[in-house]
Design brief:
about 280 residues, alpha/beta, Rossmann fold, Pantoate--beta-alanine Ligase, Chain: A,domain 2, 2 domains, 6-stranded parallel sheet, 3-stranded antiparallel sheet, globular, binds adenosine monophosphate
Length: about 280
């Protein structure tokens, strides 16, 4: 695996690869890698000659400064894991490399309704920060294929919208399934920050999703949402939201017709740690 720390070197190297006809699959991450991340590398390897991954803990997407300060960093282990997974290139930029002096931090992306719901509502500014970094990374890496995890369901829709806004529709987006621990907890870098006691409670999020999957019937959704919230309360969570939405566009639903493809989305805190998860039901 080749490691690049500067944009200039990476762009030059990738240009040469493109001229040789090599296709590029890109997996952006914030590091503290786990098998979920590596499953995206594996998917990228299947359909591209070259796989580029990036590790950058993006300060502009953290609405909570404490969360940024405490974000886990395990660079040496990450490099080892990427190498074992057969990743070809790792881009490991500094903040100045991603946001140089002449970078316009004033640009905003018109995400419309997507930014007013769920994590858009509960984490003000978060998706603008995501768009800022992904826009910059796409300009640098210029991939043919982009690999994202379904774990961050709303983020996938935001990035698809970003690609439209910046007119880069030739980049094909691939959404890969959520990898889970044996007890159902969605793998996440933030899981490393859970205490042993919190870790034992954490699968309640998955159980709440399964509860909705197993009990949802057509009609009003208020009661099932309330019951799932109570499950999380009992397990010691403080819930930001449990919502049921149209799986294609995230329109929030109060009623279900029994046919529409829907997604259940949860965000909840266990003490300081905020976990998110979702499940698509069809
Ligand atoms: P992050 O490092 O959290 O920014 O995540 C980088 C990429 O990995 C994003 O596209 C995530 O959606 C994806 N990802 C994170 N957790 C998982 C998981 N458990 N399964 C599959 N993909 C994941």
């Amino acid at each position: 695996m080749i490691l690049f720390k500067t944009t200039t070197d990476l762009v030059k190297w990738l240009d040469a690869q493109r001229q040789k006809g090599n296709t590029i699959g890109f997996v952006p991450t914030m590091g503290a890698l786990h098998p979920g991340h590596l499953s995206l590398i594996e998917a990228a390897k299947k359909s591209n000659q070259l796989v580029v991954s990036s590790i950058f803990v993006n300060p502009t997407q953290f609405n909570n400064p404490k969360d940024f300060e405490k974000y886990p960093i395990t660079i040496e282990k990450d490099i080892e894991l990427l190498e074992q997974a057969g990743c070809d290139v790792l881009f490991l930029p500094s903040v100045d490399e991603i946001y140089p002096g002449n970078f316009s931090k004033n640009r905003t992306y018109d995400l419309g309704f997507l930014e007013t719901i769920l994590d858009g509502k509960f984490r003000p500014g978060h998706f603008q920060g995501v768009c800022m970094v992904v826009h910059r990374l796409l300009d640098i890496v210029n991939p043919d294929n982009l690999y994202l995890g379904q774990k961050d369901y709303q983020q996938c829709l935001v990035i698809k919208k970003l690609i439209e806004i910046i007119g880069r529709q030739t980049i094909k987006v691939h959404i890969c399934p959520t990898l889970r621990e044996a007890d159902g907890l969605a793998m996440s870098s933030r899981n490393m920050r859970l205490t042993e006691k919190e870790r034992a409670k954490a699968p309640a999020i998955y159980h709440a999703l399964l509860f909705i999957k197993d009990n949802i019937v057509k009609g009003n959704l208020a009661i099932i949402r309330k019951e799932a919230t109570e499950m999380l309360d009992k397990a010691g969570f403080k819930t930001d939201y449990i919502e049921i939405a149209d799986a294609n566009n995230l329109t929030l639903l109060n009623e279900w017709d029994g046919h529409q493809k829907i997604v259940v989305l949860v965000a909840a805190f266990l003490n300081e740690i905020r976990l998110i998860d979702n499940m698509v039901l069809s």
